[in-house]
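for the writeup, i need someone to sanity check this before i put it in the appendix. the sequnce is what the collaborator sent (i think, or maybe the updated version? ugh). structure was predicted straight from it, no edits. if anything looks off just tell me and ill rerun, i have time this weekend
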Amino acid sequence: MAFLFATQNLNAVLRVMQWGVIALIFLFFLRVIRAVWVEMSPTTIRRSRAERRQEKVEAKPPRPAAKRKQLYLRVIEPSEREGMTFDLDDELTIGRSPGCGVPTPDDIYTSTLHARLFRRNDQLWVEDLGSTNGTYVNSEKITQSLRLGKGDMLQVGSSVFEVTR
């Protein structure tokens, strides 16, 4: 009798564990589907009302092009693209999409539209566009727009860039 009772308890415990494993598998597949959805859906740039208001207040006419310090984005890694440079004028996007100003089609860790470099008040800024693997400036992951300067290292996926003059 005691053996039968122990077997029934063991079966009940095993049944609960089976349902737990099924639930974990279901959650895993939901996470995979969400990651695919985020990667495939178009990225929208959301800014808070306060940021838009601050930009209007701080908006100044741009300096003449002769006084603006021309910055470039120089490829450090991957080695086969090392030394390539890109002009950092008003706005530039980085990603796997061929329409990006800095296309990285072979970098599997870069999102389709990964990051955006832009000018605000004649200063260069970078923002992550909701990428899966994040954008790093000087080995620090950014969570909001960040000002870039000469010598800063920008990592997008496995590609590394340096801001130069």
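The chain is about 30% helix and 30% strand. Residues 42 and 108 are 18 Å apart (CA to CA).
thx in advance!!
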